[in-house]
Amino acid sequence: MRNPDGGSSAGATNRLYKNNRDGTFTDVTEKAGLVRTADVTRQAGLLYTGNTRWGSGCTFVDYNRDGHLDLFVANYVDLNLHKLPKPGENPYCNFKGVPVNCGPRGLPMGRNYLYRNQGDGTFQEVTVANGISKATSTYAMTAVAADFDSDGWTDLYVASDSTPSLLFRNQRNGTLIGIDTTKVEISEANIILQVSRLSQERFRCRIIVIS
After folding, report:
1. Which of 33, 102, 111, 119 would be 93's cystine partner, CB 3.0–4.6 Å?
2. Beta strands in the chain (DSSP E)
3. Chain segment 21-38, per-residue pLDDT in tens
């Protein structure tokens, strides 16, 4: 965080202010337990040092029912700013005959990742071992976890932009398998995924596009 003079302020943190409903606010950051704490990304095994990823959504899911919440991360595109196609360079970089920047079509698709909670404050990437990496690549957006087939094991659904969405069914053995969806393809990026329980056996996934 930077101070008003533009310099870095040691120990600075975001603040939470409670509305007093009288035109004033009270700083309750410390009381709410939101004072800046140590960054434990590296210690938790979640630090990534490769090419920049375009993370688009994530969800916690206890996919192996060990009582510890695992982490699924969806990535939109594999974006390399030094290798971007130029406007008009390929068919996806044109709009009605006018050269435009590509995106998302015309850009490499991102890869989704699953991290297993080790139960000791750390995570281990299990994308390949779990089967997530076998799914068809898409421009993944919002992800949600729910027991879609009511078998007592949590599944994953990933809404995608311009490409079919993904449904991962829990195999109850530490793996998830991608199954065919209704081939929903969306050409807008402003996506909200809403999951509703219709009955004990049925769920409904609605993809809401905000234009």
Report:
1. 102
2. 17-19, 25-27, 55-61, 70-75, 94-95, 98-99, 113-117, 123-125, 140-146, 155-160, 166-170, 176-179, 191-197, 203-209
3. 999 999 988 887 777 666
